[in-house]
Design a protein that fits this description.
The protein contains 20 helices and 21 strands. By secondary structure, the chain is an alpha/beta fold. A hairpin with a 6-residue loop joins β1 and β2. The mean pLDDT is about 95.
């Protein structure tokens, strides 16, 4: 038996994953344990969980693998600062202490993080090797092209290659500072959202705008080649030498300084979002066409933070050139922990690989799972009022609540690995209700009203509601597709602009239909998530609709819940109507008043009127 612990840490979204003889045993992000969103610290609790799941102690591991090469990254840091000196000294002065204290001593830090008990071999892979491995090895393909796109690893900002059997060979890269991920993050920053987390908001904002700045981006910010490579004009950016993403030249080009967080969003910001989103899609498609031409493969695997841009993924799925597409659910840095562990087993140790169907990711349900005893202890300790249901009743009762217009928290089985809630730590609602999108945004998620919600749908019924294409599945909520013509209703106001479009009803499932008639679709099947599929079947039997709203079980600024205690707190402090944890049902109306006494104080921190 060979046990490999993969680790990503010290930048953002730290995580741990354990692979034993090529099988993915467990994987989790540290933020879910510490409750610090995007926690970058060594994933001590995530690693402890992975070891416990495998029944191992640290000294029984054969390899501990880290998802990038710190010395190469430090080389890039030094060369960049020297290139811009003396500009950027303040940024350098802030970065260098952490490198000297921690990041240049990763063997020591990894050993310390594991309690000092590990004495065997450490392996350091390149960042984009880890991404590529996370994309190819769990995929259902024996052979495929691989494309990774993110902000930056060591030097690479994008790479492509071929996976075949146990081999993974990268053939080409795009190098720093020319980065699609950093270009998108620059606009995220400029539009007033937080880098490395607000990119989802920018993507959701884009349909409210028109791409009137797209030509300006193409003409001024970058020189784009036919193969998708490009060169940025660094006069407009500040991330190499400063503490911001954009420069004063960027401000002049786009009509003013960056938007301050929490201030009103103007039409200009919506148009900027639409513009950079369109340019991003164009670059991704050009890259994919080049990779297809060079590799001759019919299937493509994607990873890296840009692979979470599900609008671009949807265009890849619909427009080709690849016949099949598979995207790593934890496509960002967290997934590097899984990728590096698989890279060691298959590529470095040359152990054989057999592609699995539907894939080897196990639905990405790789995290901790509460027992019935643990759930009951937590509920009893909190003096919550609950009903213990028979397993065959749980889905039916939850479906009845949803059909009655109630919002239901849903905690079932192992936690998801990756940023999406896939039916294990979810908040659910009825998509047929026009007001449900604003209700869930403002009263439960406490986030911006413009942000769309995703639908989950029974896989066998997906094409009735969404233009996914025959045989196309989206089990990890990573593809945006148009709502089917047959589901669309009436016409919208052609004069409406920007956020004025928000209140219009566009389909029979209005709460999950974005202003451009799109939806970020999750298809649900019995094999990957049988209980979630049973819930959708139960809702369909009651309503004739096999679709639900599925959003992550958290509120703005907090990670997705992990434990029953996390879920109970979120339930009690929001306007959620019911909570189903395993087979335990709690209804808000039945809870003692003292359990929700802190609710008003908690809600006062969210100013989203």
């Amino acid at each position: 038996m060979t046990a490999i612990l993969g680790v990503s840490a010290f930048y953002h979204d730290s995580a741990a994953a354990l692979v034993r003889d090529g099988e993915i045993v467990a994987a989790a992000q540290e933020e879910r344990f510490t409750r610090k969103k995007h926690d970058a610290a060594f994933p001590a609790q995530a690693a402890r969980y992975c070891l416990q799941r495998a029944g191992l102690t640290p000294d029984e591991l054969d390899y501990v693998a880290f998802y990038d090469k710190p010395l190469l990254k430090f080389e890039r840091l030094l060369e960049t600062y020297l290139s811009y000196a003396p500009r950027g000294f303040s940024s350098f002065r802030r970065a260098i202490p952490q490198w000297l204290d921690q990041k240049l001593h990763l063997r020591r830090e990894l050993r310390r993080g594991l309690g000092g008990d590990y004495r065997r071999q450490f392996v350091f892979a390149e960042h984009h090797e880890s991404h590529a491995a996370s994309a190819f090895y769990p995929s259902p393909f024996e052979e495929a092209a691989v494309l990774t796109i993110d902000g930056v690893g060591e030097w690479a900002t994008a790479s492509y290659g071929v996976g075949s059997g146990h081999r993974l060979d990268l053939l080409g890269t795009q190098r720093f500072p020319h980065s699609l991920g950093l270009l998108y993050s620059a606009f995220t920053y400029y539009c007033g959202f937080r880098v490395n987390s607000g990119e989802y908001k920018l993507m959701g904002l884009a349909p409210y705008g028109t791409p009137r700045f797209a030509d300006r981006i193409r003409e001024k910010l970058l020189h784009l080649n036919e193969d998708g490579t490009f060169a940025l004009d660094m006069r407009y950016f500040n991330y190499c030498q400063g503490l911001t993403m954009t420069s004063s030249a960027f401000d002049r080009l786009f009509g003013g300084p960056p938007r301050q967080p929490e201030t009103p969003i103007e039409q200009r910001h919506m148009d900027l979002a639409a513009s950079v989103q369109g340019v991003t899609e164009e670059i991704v498609l050009r890259m994919a066409h080049h990779v297809h031409e060079v590799t001759g493969q019919s299937a493509l695997c994607l990873a890296g933070g840009v692979a979470l841009n599900c609008v671009a993924n949807g265009r890849l799925q619909r427009e080709g050139p690849f016949e099949k597409l598979w995207i790593q659910p934890a496509a960002g840095d967290a997934g590097g922990a899984l990728g590096v562990a698989l890279f060691v087993w298959h590529h470095l140790l040359e152990e054989p690989r057999r592609a699995q169907s539907p894939d080897g990711q196990r639905g990405s349900l790789l995290g901790p799972e509460p027992t019935d005893d643990a759930i009951q202890r937590e509920l009893d300790g909190a003096e919550a009022v609950y009903e213990k249901l028979a397993p065959e009743e749980t889905c039916r009762r939850a479906a009845e609540l949803l059909a009655d217009g109630q919002v239901v928290g849903w905690v079932q089985g192992p936690m998801e690995f990756g940023p999406r809630a896939l039916g294990a730590r979810s908040i659910l609602g009825d998509p047929r209700r026009h007001d449900m999108q604003s209700t869930m945004n403002l009263k439960i998620k406490f986030r911006e009203s413009f942000r769309p919600f995703a639908p989950c749908v029974l896989e066998e019924r997906a094409t009735e509601y969404f233009e996914l294409g025959d045989g196309v599945a989206s089990p990890y909520m990573l593809i945006v597709a148009p709502v089917a013509e047959g589901q669309r209703t009436g016409s919208t106001d052609p004069q409406a602009e920007g956020l004025e479009q928000l209140g219009e009803e566009r389909s029979r499932i209005p709460a999950v239909t974005h202003v451009d008639y799109s939806a970020r679709v999750q298809t649900v099947d019995e094999e990957r998530n049988p209980r979630f599929a049973r819930l959708l079947h139960a809702f369909d039997e009651l309503t004739g609709c096999p679709v639900l709203i599925n959003t992550s079980f958290n509120v703005r600024g907090e990670p997705i819940v992990q434990t029953p205690a996390d879920a109970l707190r979120c339930f009690l402090l929001t306007d959620m109507d019911a909570l189903v944890v395993g087979d335990f049902l709690l209804e808000k109306s039945s809870q003692p008043a003292e359990l929700t006494a802190d609710r008003e104080l908690y809600l006062s921190q969210f100013d989203l009127d």
